């Protein structure tokens, strides 16, 4: 069957929010958008976890959405993060994304307050009924503290503009259950699980490592879609070591921003409570980039 969110299949990159002297670096953000478009990336996800949304002000959050949509100018899709543990705040951000011309909204599950399954459903329902753009539900219990259960996704799938799931539970069983019981499209929320999720019916990835090697992640997706499973496996194993040895050094986006600084694509600046890699971590990261062929 055709899945609701198939228009959102492919490579999405969860881009970072460039900072300079504590402020949003708008010029560098525009460069990032152009870099991804030139690589052939299908869509961009600004102001998510990788975009340090928890430490951006509401005004900065909205500004990033506006810049990315305006810079992309329809050359690739834009699905900004608009989630919150406050339904009213999530609604405000999603309305802003829709007003600015975003193609969809990525809404993380409410975090810290740990809603019931009914609470999850009512949260997404409240936003979906008041905003017309498609919504991708981001399920990442490792960060939010609670899982959105497959049975709740069955209910969410009845809402017309709930179309996709960013699946970051690490459970292929959960993904399989959602795919077999709904018409929602699943996008991987973990780079290293992209190929396994494709094998059970996933249709793409919202990638972190795509910030630096978007063409390689595209090569994996393209190989798989063309039936070249051996080629896809080769890309998976190549990317796996980069994901493990880079992203495993610290909490995202700490090592990613450090890598982008080494590659001359970012200042590497973070906003507290995120802190830079220590000297040992930087040494390991540099060797990882050398081993991959990036330095």
TrEMBL record:
Keywords: Amino-acid biosynthesis, Cytoplasm, Diaminopimelate biosynthesis, Lyase, Lysine biosynthesis, Schiff base
A Pfam match: DHDPS
SUPFAM superfamilies reported for this sequence: Aldolase
Gene Ontology annotations for the cellular component aspect, listed alphabetically: cytosol
Pathway it works in: Amino-acid biosynthesis; L-lysine biosynthesis via DAP pathway; (S)-tetrahydrodipicolinate from L-aspartate: step 3/4
Active site (record annotation): 138 (proton donor/acceptor), 166 (schiff-base intermediate with substrate)
GO molecular function: 4-hydroxy-tetrahydrodipicolinate synthase activity
TM region(s), chain numbering: none
Quaternary structure note: Homotetramer; dimer of dimers.
Family of this protein: Belongs to the DapA family.
Protein name: 4-hydroxy-tetrahydrodipicolinate synthase
Native organism: Anatilimnocola aggregata
Organism taxonomic ancestry: Bacteria, Pseudomonadati, Planctomycetota, Planctomycetia, Pirellulales
